[in-house]
Amino acid sequence: MDLEARLSGVYAELTPGERAIARVILDDYPYAALGSLRALAQRAGVSPPTVSRLVARIGFATYAELRQAIQADDRSRLRTFVAEPADLAAAARTLKQGLDGCLAAVPEPLLETVAGQLAKARSVWALGGRLSELAAEYLVRQLASLRPGVHHVPGPAAARARVLLDLGAGDLLVVYDFRRYNRENALFVQAAAARGARIALVTDAWESPLAGRADVLVRLPREASGPIDPITLEVAVTELILVTVAARLHPDGRLAELENLTRELSGLEGIGRSGACEP
Known about the structure:
57% of the residues lie in helices and 10% in strands. The termini are far apart. It has 2 domains: 80 residues, Winged helix-like DNA-binding domain superfamily/Winged helix DNA-binding domain (Arc Repressor Mutant, subunit A), CATH 1.10.10; 158 residues, Rossmann fold. The protein has a 5-stranded parallel sheet with strand order 2-1-3-4-5, with helices on both faces. It has 12 helices and 5 strands.
């Protein structure tokens, strides 16, 4: 059973209540759906009949049948993770399929739009969640080599408040927000949008609650090859975006100056082949 694929197939047709259930199930998979139907309904803030309707939509006769399928799927995932070469090969194929799907989810027009925003913004700020923070940090490190005014959003509330003081129209906030959506980040993004900053959101197929705030939205199908969340997919898409930005900015002079400054600060300038410093 591929529950994520089943939910993805009907997600666009789901009611808001049914989408809330889907997010709860996937945010705390497999545990959210291993309790009672009523408990799941309470967690999602919906009625028990709404859970029953979603269960029927994804092809199960009863909630008990769904729960049994999830238990079997969880055991299968663990076997794949610990395992035999054939299982690991299958996991590798799944990861590759996920990577192909993510890259296909950023067609050229969308890619050019994102790159254009990153190239022309007065300043660029980036932040992410528990794992996607790594992708945000990677974007900042690489983009700062291509253009000035690139920053990572700090963690503490007081530091974030100081950032907001100077944010406004012309600034761009790049947000990576995936399931188990980050509440603290959401508060910052809402405040930044209220001050006129533009929002570029990279999220999953289930869409972050911040999707309605986004000026540019990149939705990635996010597939795991075991009981882990792959950061490879977000980093690959980030690299694709960075290559497109570089093509717009032509940063050869800036990169050459960066290399010279790095050598100078590393103490490499003036060192001869013998390793001794020149007079």
